[in-house]
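Human:
Take a look at this sequence-structure pair and walk me through the tokens.
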Amino acid sequence: TNLCELQEAIKHIFSIYAVNASLIKVFLIDPANYSLVDESCHTILTTSFIGDILQKQNKTCVTVTPNQDGIQELLGSQNIIENSNSVLLIPIPERGTQTNVGIIVVASRAGSV
């Protein structure tokens, strides 16, 4: 679908600039049902943690723990956190509005992004 193609394009652009990233994931809000979807177009449960990130207007660098509310849905693997990775969560703003249309997740060894 167009949504999945857009996610792949965003991920590709980030992979060019974040060459040391161990993980890059793109989550977008599906305009058909306003749910957050992963790169396989599966709906992700929007926890309060994820909802807070979607409300931010600037990039947000957070320290996460394996039991952080909603982080496993974004990372997909506990190994990312356990291997001393930094995780950068970047809201994707919709042009001309005060809303975000998704989240980009970039993980890397601490200090390498």
About this structure: DSSP finds four helices and six strands in the chain. Residues 2-109 form a domain with the Beta-Lactamase fold (CATH 3.30.450.40). The mean pLDDT is 78. Helices lie at 2-17, 48-55, 71-75, 79-82.
